[in-house]
Every structure is written in C-alpha cells, then in structure tokens.
Task: inverse folding
C-alpha cells in the first residue's frame, strides 16, 4: 500500500510539473499583456492567434511584415475619417470581421516606433470588447533585430462575425481632465510627452501636423515620458523597474490615472503599461494636448512662456 501511495504521489508531482510546463509554453487567454518574439514565432500557424500590424508609417507593412500579419492603417481603420473620434462601433465590427477576429481569438498587435500605434490599436480593441489583446514585446524592432522572417505577401484569412457588445470605460474626456484641475476629482494626470513639450519649449515634436496654438501642460500633471518605460531593445521594462519609475513621480496606483500626450497615440503606450502590466486604474485622454491646448478658457502651465506665432 505504501509503494502504491508513493507511485501515486510521484505521478501527481509529474502531472503537476507537466501542467506547469504547458502553462509556461502557452499563457492562458488574457493572462499575459504581452507575448515574446519566441512565443509568437511558435504560434504563427495557430488558428486561434491573429497577428496585426499597426505602424506609424503605413508603408512599413508593405516592405515586409511578420508572416501572416494583417495590416491596419491607424489613420483610416481606427479613427473616424470625418469626426475627431475613434472608429464607430459599426466600423470596428467590419474591421474585426475583415481581420478574422472572433470572440475567442488571441490578437497580437505590433508595429514600428516601439509599438506606438500598436498600443493605440490595443486600446481601441479593448474599448470595443476584444477579450484577449496583447502586444508583441519589442515590436518590429526586436523581431527584426533577431533576424526573424518577414514576408511581403498578404495572407488571406477567413472573415468572421464580430459584435461590439458595449464600449468599455477606458477613455477620458476634456471634462474629466477639468474635473481634476478644478478639484472635483482626485485622479492623477500623467503627461507622457517630452520635457520640452511639457515645459512649453516646443509646441509639438518636429515635423508633426497636429498642433495646438498654446504650448505647455495641464496644471498639476506629472511628466513621465513614455519612452522611459521601454528598454533598449524596444521591450517593456520589468515590472519592478516600472513601479519605481512611476512611484518616483508620485504615481503608485492608489488613485485613478488619466494619461495624455498630443493626439493620444503615445499615451496609449503608457496606458498599456500602467493598466495592463501594472494593473492600475487608468483612462486614456485621446483628445490630449491638441484638444486641451486649443480649448478656450482652460488653464495651462507654460514654463517656457512661448507664444504661438501663426506659422
């Protein structure tokens, strides 16, 4: 009886070890915010995984993309082309159907510029109820650095039916920001732009078209540039480093957080880090500085004292 018990216990231990190995090999749906390049390379043929590229430069995809990846143009597919808004629920349903996304699909997004607009895509996908959305950690930069394969062919995928059941509350509006500024909310506002943008030295990064006629930042906002959460290889820094990075700026997750940038794309990256990686209560203010800085009568802080010259 003791021998049988010993073998039984050994069998349970082996089964547990095998189960743990399987969990490490394939994370449960929704359990991990990111996937590694190694994981993705082993799951490119997985019918439950859909890879989607969302890059800043639309031409990047055509020059070569992860095999099987579908292309999403952020400036037409993820936004309303007439109204200053994200794509309508109806437009998103059509997009998801075209991409072959079903209710049980694991969607892995990636892109250039350390996943700027891939994170924007992840935010929009979350808004419209896609349950398992992840980023490829390191994005194109890491995939290419490791000399993993790229393809110029467009892979056809079977269309699906996707229904938006509701819109998630992951978005902040101008009123929400003003509620913080005027003391009606205890949320923490995080400006993730460069220090020169934050202090009003420049109105926007060089070469951009979306501008505000005032420079500076929202009163009381904390400045933590989005790139500080990213390692040299483009991947997101370890959790403990991130906690310290934001805690040093007074952001520890004890209060709701509103993040913003210029048009909402860089702040989507910080939204992803704070909400998905650290588990904080976060909303993305996608109106960002181009809305706030152009709004009539709202208070701003402009340390540099720059004045718009109309050029």
Result:
């Amino acid at each position: 009886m003791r021998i049988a018990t010993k073998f039984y216990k050994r069998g349970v231990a082996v089964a547990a070890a095998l189960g743990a190995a399987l969990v490490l090999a394939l994370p449960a749906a929704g359990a991990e915010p990111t996937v590694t390049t190694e994981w993705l390379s082993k799951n490119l043929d997985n019918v439950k995984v859909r890879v989607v590229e969302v890059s800043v430069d639309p031409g990047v995809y055509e020059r070569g993309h992860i095999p099987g990846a579908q292309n999403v143009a952020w400036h037409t597919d993820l936004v309303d082309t007439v109204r200053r808004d994200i794509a309508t629920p109806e437009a998103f349903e059509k997009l998801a159907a075209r991409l072959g996304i079903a209710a049980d699909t694991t969607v892995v997004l990636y892109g250039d510029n350390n996943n700027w607009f891939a994170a924007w895509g992840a935010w929009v996908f979350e808004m419209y109820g896609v349950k398992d959305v992840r980023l490829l950690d390191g994005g194109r930069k890491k995939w290419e650095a490791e000399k993993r394969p790229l393809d110029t062919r467009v892979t056809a995928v079977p269309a699906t039916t996707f229904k938006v059941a509701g819109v998630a509350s992951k978005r902040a509006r101008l009123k929400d920001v003003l509620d913080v500024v005027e003391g009606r909310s205890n949320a923490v506002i995080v400006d993730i732009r460069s220090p020169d943008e934050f202090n009003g030295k420049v109105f926007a990064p060089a070469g951009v078209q979306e501008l505000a006629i005032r420079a500076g930042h929202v009163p009381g906002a904390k400045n933590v540039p989005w790139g500080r959460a990213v390692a040299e290889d483009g991947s997101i820094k370890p959790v403990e480093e991130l906690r310290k990075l934001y805690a040093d700026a007074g952001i520890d997750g004890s209060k709701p957080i509103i993040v913003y940038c210029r048009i909402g794309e860089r702040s989507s990256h910080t939204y992803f880090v704070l909400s998905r990686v650290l588990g904080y209560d976060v909303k993305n203010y996608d109106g960002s500085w181009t809305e706030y800085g152009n709004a009539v009568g709202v208070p701003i802080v402009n340390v540099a004292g720059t004045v718009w010259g109309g050029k």
User: Anything to note?
Assistant: The two ends are 89 Å apart (CA to CA). The first helix runs from residue 2 to 25.
